[in-house]
UniProtKB/TrEMBL annotation:
One of its GO terms (cellular component) is 6-phosphofructokinase complex. Its EC number is 2.7.1.11. The keyword Cytoplasm applies. Residues 7-283 form the Phosphofructokinase domain. SUPFAM superfamilies: Phosphofructokinase (SSF53784). It comes from the Bacteria. Keywords: Allosteric enzyme, ATP-binding, Cytoplasm, Glycolysis, Kinase, Magnesium, Metal-binding, Nucleotide-binding, Transferase. ADP binds at R25, S26, V27, V28, R29, R159, G190, A191, E192, K218, S219, S220. This is ATP-dependent 6-phosphofructokinase. Pfam families: PFK (PF00365). It comes from Flagellimonas taeanensis. Mg(2+) binds at N107. Allosterically activated by ADP and other diphosphonucleosides, and allosterically inhibited by phosphoenolpyruvate. The gene is pfkA.
Amino acid sequence: MASEIKKIGVFTSGGDSPGMNAAIRSVVRTCAYLKIECVGIYRGYQGMIEGDFKTLDARSVNNIINKGGTILKSARCEEFRTKQGRQKAYDQLIKEGIDAFVVIGGNGSFHGAMLFHEEFNFPVMGIPGTIDNDILGTSYTLGYDTAINTVVEAVDKIRDTASSHNRLFFVEVMGRDVGHIALNAGVGAGAEEILIPEQNLGLERLLESLKRSKASGKSSSIVIVAEGDRTGKNVFELKEYVEQHLPIYDVRVSVLGHMQRGGNPTCYDRVLASRMGVKAVESLLEGKSNYMVGIRDTKLVLTPIADAIKAHTEIDEELLRVSDIMTT
Ligand code: F6P
C-alpha cells in the first residue's frame, strides 16, 4: 500500500552539531529520490510555530555536506514546551500540508517531538544530533566524532606550549552532564588526568596523581575536565587549589567552549548523517513513528524516542581503565 505521507518537514533543534547539514541533505535527497516533497523548517520548533518554511529540492542542499552548523538554523524554544505552543505548531504544519517531520537534535528536542506525536498523532522521526553523545539507543550521535577530534587537535596545541614552559593545564571541555567527550578526547590526547561526572575520585587523588607525575619526570601535564564534573570546583578554582597545595606547579586554564561545536564534520559524521537521513525518511514512509534512528555495531536501529531519552548513556568502563593505565 502506498504511504499517505507526501510531504515531510525537516528541522534542526537545540545546540547545533557538525553533521547536521549532512543529515538535512540526506533527508532532502531521500525525499527527492522517493518523489515526495520536503520542507525545511527554520529555527527548530520556533520556526514551526511561526510557519517559517521553505520547500527544499535536491539542489537546495548542494555543497553543504562538508559544512558545520546548520543551514536551517537552530533554537531552543520555550513556547513549544506549552500545549498552546504545540497547537500553533500543529496548525502551521497542517496549513502547509506537511504530513510528518524529521527532527535532528538532542534530548530536549526529542522530548518535544514525543509529546507532539502523542497529542496530535503526528508522525515524527528523530536523528540524534549533539556533540555530547548522551542519547540512549545509539553508540554515536552526529557531531560527537567531530567534537572529540576538535578537542584532540586543540589539546595537542596546548601541549606544545605546556611542555615549552613546564606547565600544568586544566582544559575544560563540553558534554553537559556526561563525560564522553572528556574521556575519549582525553585518552586520545594523552591527558594525565580526566575528570568526569560519572566518576568523582576526589581532589586528594588529583593532588597525589600530580605529585607522582612530577616525581616521575614529566615536564608538563594536561588535565581534561568535563564541564559537568563533580569535584565541586570549576577549572579556575581547580587551578587555585592546585597552586595552593602544590606550588611546584605553574598552572594555566583553557576553556575550549563553543569551538567544539563548530568545524567541518569528520568523514564518520558525514557518512553516519547520510545513512540516518535515508533511514529516517524510509521509516516514516513504512508507517513508523515516534522512533529515533541510531547506530549499534555498525547497523542502523530504531529506538522508541521514549526509551532514547529516559536515562543518561553510561560511561565506558573499559576505557576508564585504559585511561588509568595510560597515566602511569
Ligand atoms: O548540548 C550541547 C552543548 O554544547 C553542551 O555540551 C553544552 O553544555 C551546551 O550545549 C551549551 O549550550 P549553549 O550553546 O546554549 O550555551
